[in-house]
Amino acid sequence: MSATDAPSYLIVIEQADDGGYGAWAPDLPGCVALGVTIEDAEQQMREAIAFHLEGLREHGEPIPAPTAVAAVMVTTPAA
Predict the structure, then answer these.
(1) The dihedral sign for the CA sequence 38, 44, 50, 52
(2) What is the pLDDT of residues 13-29, one digit of tens each?
(3) Residue 2's domain spans which residues?
(4) How far apart are CA 23 and CA 58, in angstroms?
(5) Is the distance from CB of 20 to CB of 39 less than 8 angstroms?
């Protein structure tokens, strides 16, 4: 499988109370990563996804198809 054939998984990055960042993938339960910066969390998540998928393959488990989508909602303050 080439990089262009590889599935694209949505990741969510959230800032923690301590200022660091946590990341997770809705389509890959249990696949999480932490980082000091957003960029670090994203890079750690790339590695976590690769490791997660490798583990699924080694155990003969199916690779989940990416299904999650994202939208950013802008809300207005209550009057």
Answers:
(1) negative
(2) 999 999 999 999 999 99
(3) 1-79
(4) 24
(5) no
- Which pLDDT tens digit goes with each residue over 68-77? 999 999 998 8
Distance CA 37, CA 73 (A): 23
Strand segments (E) across the chain: 12-15, 21-24, 32-35
Residue that the structure tokens 């946590």 belong to: 22
Q: Are 23 and 44 in contact (CB under 8 A)?
A: yes
CATH number of the domain bearing residue 9 = 3.30.160.250
**The total number of structural domains that make up the chain:** 1
pTM check: above 0.85: no
Distances (CA, A) of 53 to 18, 36, 46, 63: 29, 24, 11, 7
